[in-house]
Each structure stands twice: as C-alpha cells, then as structure tokens.
C-alpha cells in the first residue's frame, strides 16, 4: 500500500536532493506507472509530466521498441565490457550512429554511465589533451555560476550551485566560475543584445585574470536547464565562440539536457551556433529508459588522443554497456523515424513559444522564455520596475514553491527554480497536449494568485 511504501521509503531510502526530515514528515509521492506524457501515483491520481521525468524521457513513456531492444539484448549478452580491446555489437553500432547524428566533425565517443561521469571524463580529457600538447600547466576549466553539471566531485565543482559547493569542500582545484548570462539578474535596464556581449566578455576577463596559458577549457550548457531555463541573448554564444577561438581554449558543450532534440536540433550547440570541441550527453540518449552518458569527441581532441596518446587511463565498468547501447539505438531510431527533432523545431516548439508569449498577459507572469521544448516563466510582483524588467517577489515568500505545490495538487509536474517555473515536456507532445498543459498552467497560476492575496 502507499502507506507501507512511504514508511519503508522514509526508513531506508536516502533520496538525492531531498530534505530527509521533510520526507519523514510528509512521505514521498509514490509514482507507480506511466504512459506517453502521463504518470499515475500509487493512489491512481494522474499527472501531466511536463518535466519528462528529469528532462530525459524525450520519446515519452511506454515505447515498446525500447523495451524490446533491452529484453533482446539482455538475453543475447547482458554485459560485457569495453576495456582491454574488447567491444560489443550494440556499443559499436551506437558509436557509429552517434557520429551520424552529431554535428560535423564528431566521429568519436567515450561512453559513461551518466552525465556526471561524462563531465568527470571531460575534466580528465581536456587536461590530458593539454598534457599531450606539452602544456601540462594548462589545466584550469572555466564554468559558470548557477550551472548544473552533475553530482560527482568534478561535476559538482564544474557546477556553479553554491549550496552544493558548501558541502564537501568543493570546488576541486583548477575550476573557476563566471556569472551566467541571465538578464534579469545581471542586465536589467540594458539592451538584451548588448548584455549578451557583456556576459560573454566576462569569459575573456577571467581568461586574462587566470592567464591564457593556464586555461584549458570553457564549459557551458547552450541553454542552462536546471539553473532555470536561462535562454541567453543571441549575441552570447557567437561571442563566447570568438573568445575561445582567440585564446585557443577548448569549448565544451554540456548537452545532457539540450541534446537529442530538446532545442529543435539534434544538439543545442546547433541551435545557438557554437562549435564545441567536446559534447557531454546522457538523459535523452536513451530517453532515460536505462542509464547511459558520454562525451562526443571532436577532431582536435580525438586526433591528439589517438595519434599521440597511448592509453587514456580512464573508464567505467559500464562504458558502452550493451543493454544501454541497444536501448539508445532503438531510441535514436525512433526519434528519427517519428521525425521528433523536426516536430519540435517546426511544429510544437513554435506553438509552445506562442503560448508562452501569450502567458505574459497573466498578472503573475513577469517574463517568459522558450527554446524548442524548454520553457520558463518568471513569477513576478509587477510587470515593470524602476530598475527595468519586472519587479520580483521577496525570495522569502518562496512563490515558486507555492506555485509548484498547486501544480502537484492539480495533476501537473512542473519545476520551480526560485521564482522561475520551468517545463521540458517529452518531444512527442502534440498541439492538443500543449493546449492541455497551458490549461493546467493557467489553473495553477490562478490558484497561486489567489493564495498570495489571502
Ligand atoms: N549536466 C547537466 C546539464 C545536467 O542537467 C545533469 C543532470 O541533470 C548532469 C550534467 C548530470 O547528469 P546525471 O544526473 O546523469 O549524472
């Protein structure tokens, strides 16, 4: 029963990113099954999953071809590793298919089990690259505040979540941060295009401060996801690219969220127009059906590793796990067959963007942003302020959490990052389901307004 699961859950399961005492007081919501975009809890309540689980279930729940691929592979060969010059058919076929769907110049992949491990791999790989160039001192990686790059020591250090750094002595040495390109926080009153260039110039400032001969790489998500779906001004990424080119530093695109169609292209770097050297991926590669991640390795780094490198002393038991790779193959084939990337780019993405723009008329909404099937709405006290842009709520009111609890109580899974309410629904969403989602969002916003008035 639900009560029994909740009791056992509180007694034994240390959940990630969860307040244990709150969980003990209230109990977890037990999610018992799912289909398409919908979840059902153990009490039979239906929920619209506007977050694709944790940004991962790109093809939606219940896709039989992924399940069949896993079952077939488990019977054929449930595990074999990729160490010591062995390989497996699904891993090879996936590596080949990834080279086909990746941006031009990405012919190689290093597999991991998750996005965090992918970013750990990035840290070692970029430092290895510079060692091979005879510049072992070139080991500093620049990242951004408010970024999320995972929970391993390197992933959490690359991340710019200060509440994570506060636990466990992070960041590890050789990682430093610049501010994010968030106009509301850093650019109010400025022209947005000018602000994009200003925010990119902070990278150059940091490179000069650290010393150009010490900087190995810059890492960023094309669109910051867990940071609150921060869509940078169009001027930002071209300027970041120019700076990376000028100083010869490697550009890493963390596409754990943005990859596999989320932004309306196969990879987010194609949407924002950057040319990374490395691309981290996970989540959408298998639509979350089984864990898999990795790093797509561009020509510059691959050439050095292969031609000069000897052995790269790095790898995971599950690098190229055959079952995960078989599911990824089925997932990518489905995305292709159903034309889901084009569906996001040409149909539901623009449709959602228009709906979000119209949401700005709602009294609680101060700003909205979308890119493909990522969307954010900022809950604000007033639409304008003396500082420029909307007037924000006092953070102590936790208006985002108020709204989120109305969502949860009314059958909608939407996430709150401060006062930014964010969505990332499965790519299979239809226009009719976007309408259904907007209806739910309106209802929850109205309930939030009503609660704030009392
Ligand atoms: N990078 C980004 C941008 C992410 O959003 C996440 C997870 O949300 C990660 C890395 C870490 O991935 P994982 O949770 O698979 O380790």
From TrEMBL:
Q: Which domain of life is it from?
A: Bacteria
| Needed cofactors | pyridoxal 5'-phosphate
Keyword list (alphabetical) reads: Aminotransferase, Pyridoxal phosphate, Transferase
The UniProt GO MF terms for this protein read:
adenosylmethionine-8-amino-7-oxononanoate transaminase activity; pyridoxal phosphate binding
Which GO BP terms sit in this record?
Answer: biotin biosynthetic process; gamma-aminobutyric acid metabolic process
**Entries under InterPro entries matching the protein:** Aminotrans_3, Aminotrans_3_PPA_site, PyrdxlP-dep_Trfase, PyrdxlP-dep_Trfase_major, PyrdxlP-dep_Trfase_small
Transferase as a keyword? yes
Which Pfam family is an annotated match for this chain, by its short name?
A: Aminotran_3
Give the CDD domains listed for this entry.
OAT_like
Q: Which NCBIfam families match?
A: PRK07480.1
Q: Which family does it belong to?
A: Belongs to the class-III pyridoxal-phosphate-dependent aminotransferase family.
Name under which the protein is recorded: Putrescine aminotransferase
Q: What is the protein's species of origin?
A: Sphaerotilus mobilis
